[in-house]
Amino acid sequence: MIRLLRTALAAAILIVTPAFAHNGVIHLGPLNISGSFTRATLPNAPVGGGFLTIENTGTEADRLVSATSSAAKETQIHEMAMEGDVMKMRALADGLEIPAGETVTLAPGGFHLMFMGLNQAFVEGEKVTVTLTFEKAGTVDVELPVMTSAADAPAAGHAH
Ligand SMILES: [Cu+2]
121: CA distance to ligand 1 center in Å? Predict the structure, then answer.
């Protein structure tokens, strides 16, 4: 049983492309991922947000196609957009394009990762790990340090 579990774990680890972090920047092929964080939540909060910066130093566009985390039942890629006079968020069904030579920032009030159905509250000082999958660059685990609940808080409400 333990051997089976070990084999399963080894297989799971092999799926993740090796990534190299220098000074807090994770390099995944031509992508540089930095500035990751999430915000502390209240106990029993249903959702949390994830924020980070993705720089594409390559000559081809890539696309963040999915995000998963054991911290939540489902993790989605969201954008904030005006609908009439109201700022609303919605899931990006086709993922988030990272154009060649450009930097895309996921930040409060804009693009973000959305943790839906938290398995436990996010506590300041702890870390949440999210696995990001890019169309071309592959898959990487990113740790999001949990900052205060007000870290870079968006001006508009963030309600579902
Ligand atoms: Cu959202």
Answer: 17
